[in-house]
Amino acid sequence: MPDRRHNLLHINPGAAGKYGFHHKITLVRFTVEGTKIDNLEINEIDRKRLP
Questions:
Q1: Domain segments of the chain: what residues?
Q2: Which of the chain's ends, N or C, has fewer CB atoms near its CB within 10 Å?
Q3: What backbone torsions phi and psi does residue 30 show, to the nearest 5 degrees?
Q4: 0.70 cut: is pTM over it?
C-alpha cells in the first residue's frame, strides 16, 4: 500500500508472530533496486511446525 505522506511503500505480510489465532505465519521477501521491486516471494509456514 503506497504511503504518499511518508513517500514509502508499506507491505504487510499478515501474521508473523509465534502466537495468535492465525493458523499460518506469512513472510514476504523481495529485492529493491533503485525504484524497482523485484523477486517478490510470499511464504507460508504452518504455525504447528514451530517449536
A1: 14-49
A2: C
A3: -160, 165
A4: no
4-41: burial string, b at 16+ Cβ within 10 Å, e else: eeeeeeeeeeebeeeeeeeeebeeeeeeeeeeeeeeee
Q: What is the pLDDT of residue 51?
A: 64
- Residues in CB range of 6: below 8 A, 6 or more apart: none
Contacts of 47 (CB under 8 A, 6+ apart): 18, 22, 23, 24, 25
Distance in angstroms (rounded) separating the CA atoms of residues 8 and 2: 6
What is the distance in angstroms between the CA of the first residue and the CA of the last residue of the chain? 33
